Each structure stands twice: as structure tokens, then as C-alpha cells.
Amino acid sequence: MPDLLPRARSSQESVFARMSRLAAQHGAVNLGQGFPSGAPPAFLLEAARRAVGTADQYAPPAGLPALRDALGADLGVDGADIVVTTGATEAMGLLAQALYGPDDEVLMLEPVFDIYLPQARLAGATPVTVPLRLTAEGGWTLDLDELRAAVTPRTRALLLNSPHNPTGRVLTREELEAVVTLARQHDLWLISDEVYDELYFEERPTSLRALAPERTFTVGSAGKRLEATGWRVGWVACPPGQAGPVAALRQLASFCAPTPFQVAVAAALPLARQSGFYEGLREGYAARLHLLARGLRDLGAEVFLPGGTYFLMARRPGWEAEVLVEQAGVAVIPGEAFAPSQALPPGLLRLAFCKSAGELEEALARLERFCRSPASHE
Ligand code: GLN
Asked: What sign for the dihedral angle of Cα 161, 163, 168, 174?
């Protein structure tokens, strides 16, 4: 029997799947993988119930026209520039295939979301990371000179993620303007992973596309916006004229995203916008962020507040992801999972607060018990 290729053999279970598995195994409160523990909004569920049984066959690979139009209206772009994907993960993989290949380099920020590196490598390209550094004040800085210095004649694309997973950092308009200047100077594609676009705690984040529509591919996620991460409905808003080839390439993966969920998301997007759903979401998340942050600080942890996303980073001597899931009964993600090539300050953990207040309180109570136990002092 021939061997699987090295790229298959060296692929590993994702840290998120692994921590969810360990959480289930140890009966832990799961503050690891980022998915909400509550139900999606009723208007989304009702729309899906109506769609199942009436919209059950393939959709066009680029997406149902109704969904492309709804997304176009929501994002302020032409629906013809949208390609609907099976989750934002597929969108990112698709762009890796479409935009870079052997001999190309792609720049991205580190800490880095786990899929970006292997997706670039599968496309044959070399990912090059530029650090976001934790400052003494607990913020994350991007050194624009360092970013400029990382561009080589082989650089083909720059991949940004704002609000940023795992740090929660929101890139400022000034930073994005500098990125656009750099991209124009070197004729780079821009990939902007904006799946947390509606989850922010200060000013609304600037969308990169607004500054460079001619070269920006914006990735979004209905799962993140509408609290249904398992539905696998994501999208790419392409620069004008690029959606056709991207959709053609997209047929080769899952062909189309699940049709009934596309129908439901098309119906839900305008309702979410008009009904103030996102404002409510942010308020709910801000409250849970502060509940968790306060509780962690009371336990002596250092907490790094996010500007967006539903994650915060924290650290405390004696806390390690592997130990917490087994001995405290709380699953989190180790910071190192996002920093394969440069050292992060030791002991950073990512905690998801897209869970109920009850679960957050239970997690804090378990952490408190763990802090008092001899195990935490070993
Ligand atoms: N985005 C999610 C997180 O950061 C995980 C996505 C996944 O597991 N595919 O937790």
C-alpha cells in the first residue's frame, strides 16, 4: 500500500477540536473552542425551518442570488462580487488556492489563527509572519516598519485579521492605511478575515475593503454573526470582476454551501440589521467579557482585554491549558497554539466568553477551587 503524502501525515488535529474533545472527556466547562453555547436567534431558526423541505437541492456555487444580494446590501458592495462558501474556513482555503502558489510568500500577523499557515503551505506558498507584540500596558502593537521590512520581491499577498483572533486586537484606520500604501507600492493582494466584524467593544472596526476595494478580499461568517457556527455559511467579498474565477475554483471543494441555511441567512441578514440584533449581541458579550475579566483578576490573573471578538487572553502562574482541563475542569486554548514561530510571553491562555453567564461563573468557581488546591502549586 502506498503511503499518504507527507502533507496528510503531518496534518494534526486542530487545537480547537482537541480542546473540545478533552473538555468532553473531562467534563470541563469549555472556554476553548469559540462557539456560542446559546441558541441562534429565533428569526434565523424559523427561516431555516421554513427552508428545509423547500430548498433542499444544490445552490449555484457562487451562492444563492438572494443571499449574494442580501450580503451585498449589508456590506455595501455589489452582490455580483460575493462568493458564498462553506464557512469562513473554506473561504480562507479558497483564497490561498486562488491567490498564491509555489515561490510566493504571504505575510500574516503572529499570533496567527491556526489554519492560515497550513493553508498557505498546501497552496505551495511560504507564510511569513510579522509579530503583534504584547506591550507593558497589556496592548498588542504592530510595528509597521517591521511589516514593511518583511516584504520581498516574492511577497504576493498580505493576510490580516481584525478583530484579531486570539488577541482581540482591532487594527486602526491609520494602520490599515499604511497597509494599503504598502500593498499598492508592491502590488499585493489583501485578504481581510473579518469574521468578528460585528463583535467589537469600542469603535466599529474599519473594513479594509473601504480603503482598497480594488485588491481586497473580505472574508465573513454567518456562523459568527448569527451564532450558528455549525451551519457553515461564510463568504468572500471579492474585488470587482474577481468573483467569477473564485466561484469556479470553489466548485471543486464543496460545490456549494448548504442551500437551506443560505435561504435562512439571506432572510436573517436584513432582520438582524434592522432589529438591532448586533447591538444586543455586543451588549451581551460586553457584559460577559467583564464578568470573566473581573473574575479572573480576582483570582490573581493578568487579563488582556480585547477590542473585539469573543476571546480574551489571560495568564497566571500555575495555569496551563493541559493542566486546567484535567485538574480544574476548565478548557481553554494555550497561547502557544497561535505562535509557532516566535515566543509569546509564557503562560498566555485564550478564553472564550461566548458562553452563558452561568457557565462563566462555573468556570471561575472551578478555577478558584483549583487555585486553592495543592495541584496548582506543584
Ligand atoms: N474560530 C474558532 C476559534 O477560534 C474555531 C474554529 C474551528 O474550530 N474551526 O475558536
From this structure: positive
Least confident of 177-191, 284-298, 336-350: 336-350
**Residue closest to 243 by CA, chosen among 59, 78, 75:** 78
Distances (CA, A) of 159 to 95, 109, 119, 121: 10, 8, 12, 14
Which residue shows C-alpha cell 486570539?
Answer: 166
CA 34 to ligand 1 centroid distance, Å: 5
The values of phi and psi at residue 362, to 5°, are -65, -40
Domain residue extents for the chain: 6-40+277-377, 42-275
| Segment 287-318, tens digit of pLDDT | 999 999 999 999 999 999 999 999 999 999 99
312 C-alpha to ligand 1 centroid (Å): 14
- CATH superfamily membership of 6-40+277-377: Aspartate Aminotransferase, domain 1 (3.90.1150.10)
In angstroms, the CA 334 to CA 349 distance is 5
Atom of ligand 1 nearest to the CA of 87: 9
In eight-state DSSP terms, residue 311 is: E
Domain spanning 42-275, CATH class: alpha beta
β-sheet bridge partners, residue 331 = 30
Of all protein residues, the one whose alpha carbon is nearest to atom 8 of ligand 1 is: 16
Cell numbers linked to 205: 472596526
34 lines ligand 1 (CB under 6 A): yes
Alpha-carbon span 334 to 166, nearest angstrom: 10
Bridge-partner residues for 30, per DSSP? 331
Report strand pairing: 189-193 vs 155-161: parallel
The alpha carbon of 223 and the centre of ligand 1 are apart by a number of angstroms equal to 11
pLDDT of 159 over the 90 cut: yes
For 44-70, write each residue's pLDDT tens digit: 999 999 999 999 999 999 999 999 999
Report the alpha-carbon angle 292-109-180, nearest 5: 115
Q: Is the pTM of this model over 0.85?
A: yes
